[in-house]
UniProtKB/TrEMBL annotation:
This is NTP transferase domain-containing protein. GO terms for molecular function: transferase activity. Residues 3-218 form the Nucleotidyl transferase domain. It comes from Streptomyces bambusae. The keyword Phosphoprotein does not apply. Keywords: Nucleotidyltransferase, Transferase. It comes from the Bacteria. It holds the Pfam family NTP_transferase.
Amino acid sequence: MIGLVLAAGAGRRLRPYTDTLPKALVPVGPEGDEESLTVLDLTLGNFAEVGLTEAAIVVGYRKEAVYARKEALEAKYGLKLTLIDNDKAEEWNNAYSLWCAREVLKQGVILANGDTVHPVSVEKTLLAARGNGQKIILALDAVKQLADEEMKVITADGQGVCKITKLMDPATATGEYIGVTLIEPEAAEELADALKATFERDPDLYYEDGYQELVDRGFTVDVAPIGDVKWVEIDNHDDLAKGRSIACQY
């Protein structure tokens, strides 16, 4: 099993940082510190801490910034890194971005969005949840108070995910998918096919819509509750401020 980071997004709501950097390389350490840790740093550190030795990073927008840091990141975290180019990063949504890593999925991955600040306890929770035939396990926050923007999930006992979408009444949701998934090798081909069907239907769809496609086909997508932990998806400057307050605790 290896790590996988989706880091192709532009993150235009984080300008001026993202004028020159992809969202995954926006600093989440003290403001003004040019050597500050980034979301990518934190995620690669998590991968290394749970014993992974390789990771792939899907790059697109401002990919040259990731290429420039590749060797330094490999040395810092002891990971062999493979960069995968997404040629439509500024045109299509991330269902296509994850599909670009379809060959990597065959190794089994811990997938992390490049904008999610989270503790290593999330990866540990996913790894601990393996062993009962699950093929895909989503990290689920069942504690947070939800609103309209979150990627919400409805589950059923013994059946895993029934629905995953932003477009549902928050009151009906079991919890929020935080952007970290364990994907076993056995799920790779079916997931790649579902992702392809998803972006061919509408290139603006999310990879979570690919998960829904799997569920609609009768595939079981499981969840692992992460407990009451501090994390944030960084979409805008308010999120970035929260991410900085969280990152310093890890």
